[in-house]
Amino acid sequence: MNDWRIYRGAGLPHDGIRRLPPPPPWRDFAASAADAGSGTDPSAARRLGVLRRLVENHHPRPEEVEAVNAALYLRRPLLVTGNPGTGKSTLAHAVAYELGLGRVLRWPIVSRSTLRDGLYHYDAIARLQDVQLERAATGTEPGRSSIGGYLRLGPLGTALLPADRPRVLLVDELDKSDLDLPNDLLNALEEGEFALPELERIADREPEAEVLTDDGERTVVRGGRVRCTTFPLIVLTSNGERDFPAALLRRCIQLELEPPGEEQLTAMVRAHLGDDAVTDGEALIQRFLDREPGEVIAADQLLNALFLTQHAPRTERVTRDRLADMLMQPLDRPR
């Protein structure tokens, strides 16, 4: 069928939705759900395959390699800045993959994020409800239940657990936080430990408590405190939307990523969309590389344009060009 459109704007019901192709790998929510579950879904395998190809084809510049090694040697966080789509998150996954450090723990930051969100969560409401249900079912006052069953460590808290090998923690888009979070992070990053007050208060009668980790596994917390034995590799990313306090900057290894070059861009396209997309999208890739100095176009905008134009008829050159123009508008240019 030459007409690539699913929605035609004709106002007449039809079943064209059945022709909707599979989603781009980076928008495959079925894969995300499977990743959170058993991981046996084929779409999850595809998603993990894309990530593996992405990191295997990642070509970091010498300064990126040096900064990562400095952070590893000095046990300091790595603050990675750069425009959207420069590979800040990919760097964390590439290090974890190459060094066999397991799944990257990810803490996506929003304006409401607090330090406690990254350390742990205590579900006091669920505990109260369980007490009330037991009282209603038995007609007697329930005994003390372990608080540990209502605690779950966040990604930062899990990264600080005692371990023989460091975990990799990606604190994504720290510049989206409120003014307090960077300062609140300082003590945890400097000391490598934190307290769970709910457990500290009962440490005399319950010195050990089993809690859930961000990985979904159980671990034992002793004395109501978590103390790391091997400092994790913490990658803090920023799109440069705000400045950070000097106290945080002096504790970090700082790295600014340049926009991807031809080798990095080609590897990214190949990992996500395959070899054919590199060949068929040569003009769009060159357009990305030839953008005006200072013009900000994210690499994922290029991936979107390549994916969508693959499904537009090759005979409709005007349509393909119009789609590319729509998807690759510079981020810093007024609409």
Number of strands: 11
User: Percent helix among the residues?
Assistant: 40-55%
What is the CA-CA span between the terminal residues? 34 Å
What is the radius of gyration computed over CA atoms, rounded to a whole number of angstroms?
Answer: 24 Å
One letter per element, helices H and strands E, the order comes to HHHEHEHEHEHEHEHEEEEHEHHHHH
Low-confidence stretches: none
What's the mean pLDDT score? 85
Label the overall shape: globular
Structural class call reads alpha/beta
**Biggest β-sheet strands, sense, barrel:** 5 strands, parallel
Q: Enumerate how many helices there are, as a single number.
A: 15
Enumerate the strands of the largest sheet in spatial order, edge to edge or round the barrel: 2-5-10-1-11
User: What share of residues are in beta strands?
Assistant: 5-15%
Description:
42% of the residues lie in helices and 13% in strands. It is an alpha/beta fold and 335 residues long. A five-stranded parallel sheet has the order 2-5-10-1-11. Strands 3-4 form a two-stranded antiparallel sheet. The chain has a two-stranded antiparallel sheet with strand order 6-9. Strand 7 and strand 8 form a beta hairpin. The chain is globular, with a radius of gyration of 24 Å. The two termini are 34 Å apart. The mean pLDDT is 85.
Quick rundown:
With 335 residues, the chain is an alpha/beta fold. The protein is built from 15 helices and 11 strands.
